[in-house]
Amino acid sequence: MSTATLRQDARVIGLVGFAHGTSHFYHLILAALFPWLKPEFNLSYAELGLLMTVFFVVSGIGQALAGFVVDRFGARAVLCSGIGLLGVSALALAAAPNYTMLLAGAMLAGVGNSVFHPADYTLLNQRVSKARLAHGFSVHGISGNIGWALSPIFMTFVTTMAGWRTALLCAAALPFIVLGVLFLNRHALRPDPIVRAPGAPGQPAGGSLAFLGLKSVWMCFAFFFITALALGGIQSFASTALVSLYGMSLALATSAYTAYMAASAAGMALGGFLGARSQDHDRTIMLAFGSAAALAILLALAVVPAWMALVLMGAIGFASGIAGPSRDLLIRAAAPPNATGRVFGVVYSGLDSGLSVGPLIFGAMMDAHHPSWIFVFIGVFQALAIATAVGVGSNTRALRLQKA
Question: Do 67 and 211 meet the contact criterion of CB atoms below 8 Å apart?
């Protein structure tokens, strides 16, 4: 493969990854501010969790719709519109005078966040060579985890120095910087010509909604929903639960979350190589999530010292990260031709749906003073997700054998 193709692939992967990292950074700009928003507006943990729920409900609904918009109008324009909305949402949140306006800002951020997965994966599938696609998915996941890891550090640091409103104003600058970078590199992200003619070659039979009749698509949706329940607990309340369980400082607990995300990024890098060398992606997912679930249950028992809890959080993140590229390749194998945006939009709306429900469930556990349940249920949800991944993998193998 030529050096020019390598440069082109690397450029596209880097640009899409940069945008995706911004999306994930915005997932946590409110969660990172919970310790300040709670006394500022006299909120319960459940009310804080509702902010995340609003964000992800709106994002989930929008994401399913965005997939159709991407397939109709092209991924580049849709991606840029979402990035711009994220910047506007941070400005609105920074000016929020009450809880109602926080909810409105979270809703606006959810609309902006909804475009990323269908747009990102469509661009990667169109502009990256097949030989490097697994690594493209790996970098895409890593960039998201970097966004997740940096968000609480950045927001906590700026809030400590200058207040939470200033932190949100600073966060608002990031999307507009990303828009500038994408504009300068717009040719690299040019979309493929849009296929609109009904019955055109490669179009799924039955029109643009035919893919909704595929069992594998809904099993992928279930997989994302269940794993997102676990992720919602980690993102929203793992740090608070660690403080209660292990008596550690909030700073150390936040570091444990950062260790989870950094180790998850390392796991995704390894997962990219594993995904490129295997067609049985569900088996990789089974081993990775099985290990993560067992480690989460161990963490819930609180039988290790506080420093070891940080190590366990990193180990859970590493094991979960390994599954990332295999997960995306599993979905790609289930997607009909010319329906990438729609399939990834619907499937990834399962992620947002789970992230919308998860904070409510785990917030109620914290209000009931059961911090250990946070990690117990994280492990349970990860274990349950294995069954859906194996189901998708089995279906994909059966289809592969039929075509052989």
Answer: no
Does residue 191 carry a pLDDT above 60?
yes
Task: Report yes or no: 129 and 5 within 8 Å, Cβ to Cβ.
Answer: yes
Alpha-carbon distances, residue 262 vs 143, 257, 267 (angstroms):
10, 9, 9
Locus of tokens 């599954």:
323
Among residues 111, 109, 13, 22, the alpha carbon closest in space to that of 69 is found at 111
* Residue 135 to residue 301: CA distance in whole angstroms: 36
| pLDDT confidence band for 314 (50 / 70 / 90) | very high
327 vs 316: CA distance, rounded Å? 17
Q: Give this prediction's pTM.
A: 0.73
Arithmetic mean of pLDDT, 211-223: 79
The set of residues, in sequence order, having a beta carbon less than 8 Å from that of 238 and lying 6+ positions away, is: 253, 256, 257, 260, 313, 374, 375, 378
Question: 381 near 296, Cβ under 8 Å?
Answer: no
Q: How far apart are CA 255 and CA 238, in angstroms?
A: 11
Cα distance between residue 299 and residue 209, in whole Å:
43
What's the average model confidence in pLDDT over 103-125? 91
Please tell me the predicted confidence (pLDDT) of residue 353: 82
Instruction: Give percent helix, percent strand, percent coil of the chain, each to the nearest 5.
Output: 85, 0, 15
- Is 162 a residue whose pLDDT tops 80? yes
Q: Phi-psi region for residue 338, left (φ > 0), alpha (ψ -120 to 50) or beta?
A: left
For residues 166 and 139, what is the distance between their CA atoms, to the nearest angstrom? 31
Tens of pLDDT, residues 260-309: 888 988 898 888 888 777 777 778 888 999 999 999 999 999 899 988 99
Q: Report the candidate in 264, 5, 25, 13 with the shortest Cα–Cα distance to residue 139.
A: 13
Task: Indicate whether 144 pLDDT > 50.
Answer: yes
Count of C-beta atoms within a 10 Å radius of residue 60: 27
Q: CA-CA distance, 57 to 349, in Å (whole number)?
A: 9
User: What mean pLDDT is predicted for residues 71-79?
Assistant: 87
Residue 207 structure tokens: 């029109």
For 363, the 3-state DSSP assignment is helix
What residues contact 398, with CB distance under 8 A and at least 6 apart? none
Angle, in degrees to the nearest 10, between helices 116-127 and 306-334: 60
Token pair of 162, please?
Answer: 């200058």
